[in-house]
Design a protein that fits this description.
Blueprint: H1 16-23, H2 30-38, H3 47-55, H4 71-75, H5 82-104, H6 112-123, E1 130-136, E2 142-150, H7 160-169, E3 174-180, H8 190-206, E4 209-216, E5 221-223
Helix pairs in contact: 2-3, 5-6, 7-8
Length: about 230
């Protein structure tokens, strides 16, 4: 019969709290960081063991898997109740917001790389394709953004009319569209190219210029403007 090791029985130098105090948070592993935030484990399992099981639950890939967990899915993990599920969901959201806030300092809507970095955490973890419309004024300042599609991005489902109604209501002069590829590979599909052409042509008729279409992958992107496709 295996005897469970409590946190108090772990050598002081190996306990996450003490290790963080001595060496800083950067010295902690993903499992140790999560254990600190969880504070306690569950019956027969210390916080480190619970943290490891959450990170690698059902073959998950570690810390990035937390972004995929809904509160309801988290509560199905043994040892994760309502409180821990909410804590983990908030940790995920906080990480996204920290990343976005950092990217926001360099955000320029004339720079595809800065746009991609700013929206990366919003989109790269999504399991469905989401298309966003960014609306800009004559000085290329953001005056509004909205999701115009969720699910498979399909030219037959996205009509330029609906898109430009939003833009006209905001008195936009320029628009940028961006969407994610859940596969993590941002190479434009034939459908992506068709949608882009239709939106570009419709915008030219009513005087609203499509500045770019950016496809978000897993920490990578493709800009139609950078690639000379606009």
């Amino acid at each position: 019969m295996n005897q469970k090791v409590t946190m108090k029985e772990i050598p002081s130098a190996d306990r996450p709290y003490e290790k963080c105090e001595k060496l800083g948070a950067g010295a902690l592993s993903d499992t140790e960081l999560l254990a600190v935030l969880l504070r306690i484990g569950t019956r027969g399992e210390n916080a480190l063991e619970l943290a490891s099981r959450i990170l690698y639950h059902n073959g998950e890939s570690g810390i990035l898997g937390i972004h995929q967990f809904s509160i309801e899915r988290l509560k199905k993990i043994h040892g994760v109740g309502r409180v821990k599920a909410v804590q983990l969901s908030c940790i995920s959201e906080l990480a996204k917001r920290l990343s976005k806030a950092s990217a926001g300092e360099l955000l320029s809507f004339e720079n595809p790389d800065s746009i991609a970095r700013y929206y990366m955490e919003d989109l790269r973890h999504e399991k469905q394709e989401i298309m966003k419309l960014l609306m800009l004024n004559s000085k290329s300042k953001l005056i509004g953004e909205t999701n115009i599609s969720k699910g498979t991005v399909n030219a037959s489902l996205i009509t330029p009319r609906e898109l430009f109604i939003e833009a006209l209501q905001k008195n936009a002069v320029f628009v940028i569209i961006l969407h994610n590829h859940p596969s993590g590979e941002p190479t434009p599909s034939r459908e992506d190219r068709l949608i882009t052409r239709r939106i570009q042509d419709a915008g030219a008729l009513i005087g609203i210029e499509l500045l770019d279409h950016i496809i978000i992958g897993n920490n990578c992107y493709v800009s139609f403007r950078e690639e000379g496709m606009l």
